[in-house]
Amino acid sequence: MKIQRAIYRKTGVPREVCGVEEADWGEPGSGELGVRMEYAPIHPADINQLEGRYGRSVELPAVPGGEGCGVVERLGAGVPPEWLGRRVILPGGVGTWSEWCVVRMEGVRPVDPGLDPKQAAMLRINPATAWLLLKTVCEVGPGDWVLQNAGNSAVGRAVAQLCGAWGIRVVSAVRRLDSVPVAEPGEVVVLDDEALPGRVAELAGSARLPLALNAVGGESALRLGRLLNEGGTVVTYGGMAKQPLRIPTGLLIFKDIRWRGFWLTRWWDAASEAAREEVLAGVERLALQGVLKSEVDSVFGLGELEAALERAQQGGRTGKVLLRLSRDCGGNLDA
Ligand SMILES: NC(=O)c1ccc[n+]([C@@H]2O[C@H](COP(=O)([O-])OP(=O)(O)OC[C@H]3O[C@@H](n4cnc5c(N)ncnc54)[C@H](OP(=O)(O)O)[C@@H]3O)[C@@H](O)[C@H]2O)c1
Fold first, then answer.
1. What's the domain count of the chain?
2. Which of 18, 102, 201, 327 has CA 20 to 30 A from 305's CA?
3. Ligand 1 pocket test: which of 122, 137, 153, 264 has the largest number of ligand atoms within 8 Å of its C-beta?
């Protein structure tokens, strides 16, 4: 039996190096699961990894894909039978853009059968990042304001949804106002331009502004940093504009604004099993309640990988590009 799987053999030019290849089915060994994959998103980090510009390199050839979901169909020796038929999400580093994955059971997490598989495929990275940005950087509570750029990104929408659920006000700066068709409760969507500081000052008045979330960089990050209260924190978790941060000395000295980074991978490596589970159970619960919802722009079969990658790198989207991996999901798997 054959499977289909995206493989890249060198880095630098994602559209040329990604192809669909047939390989033999992998049989799960001791302690391993055989997972028929359903969906996997294409994230900016996946593209960065293909380009060889990510924080962690992989040994080539490699299968791309940082997250995804599927159904356990085969069990290796020593795996409890309850795993069979469970929908699961995969840990990082597995390479999810494949019809079939063989993976050690540690780190694989079953999800509630009621969770939509597309939502499950997008749960582990962006909603978890949003959760941790709001919970681990500094104290933010009801009535406080959080500022963010890339407010229409998947992380940005999850931040706004969590803020809405937790009574936190949020200013979401975006490049196109129509990229957020419906604002969350307590959210204000504004253009990320020179007029932003005036608008935020008007909106927030004397409320606390302790935290800014930066996924863009350059001037956009600086605009957010200038608006924070003394001692506030700008946390950078992405660099979509590919512009460095140029921080005025006065913001450091006179306002003591703190500039720091966040990387889910680092947090995950350092976290206890219980801390990881608290985050995943939290975002799963909110996804089941419909509070957290990741929009889908388009769904491509694995055989349409080039077109999917092209779409994922285009502006003007209002959601994620997903790969449909299993034949059972009706995907076009003809290379
Ligand atoms: N540090 C971590 O652990 C971590 C975890 C998850 C995600 N991230 C990062 O978070 C960021 C967002 O990820 P995502 O999956 O949520 O993204 P996404 O849903 O694919 O959305 C991409 C966002 O980037 C914006 N963008 C694209 N090019 C831009 C440019 N040149 N200047 C300004 N904005 C630009 C887009 O705006 P338009 O719609 O206007 O094009 C959109 O808001 C990425 O940098 C990603 O790597 C980091």
1. 2
2. 102
3. 153
Q: Are residues 64 and 147 in the same domain?
A: no
Query: For residues 325 and 335, what is the distance between their CA atoms, to the nearest angstrom?
Result: 12
Which tens digit of pLDDT belongs to each residue from 237-280? 999 999 999 999 999 999 999 999 999 999 999 999 999 999 99
pTM confidence score: 0.96
Tokens 């799963």: give the residue: 284
237 Cβ inside 6 Å of ligand 1? yes
CA of 56 to the centre of ligand 1 (A): 18
Task: Determine whether the shortest distance from the Cβ of 150 to ligand 1 is under 6 A.
Answer: yes
Q: 180-199, pLDDT tens digit by residue?
A: 999 999 999 999 999 999 99
Domain span at 48? 2-123+294-329
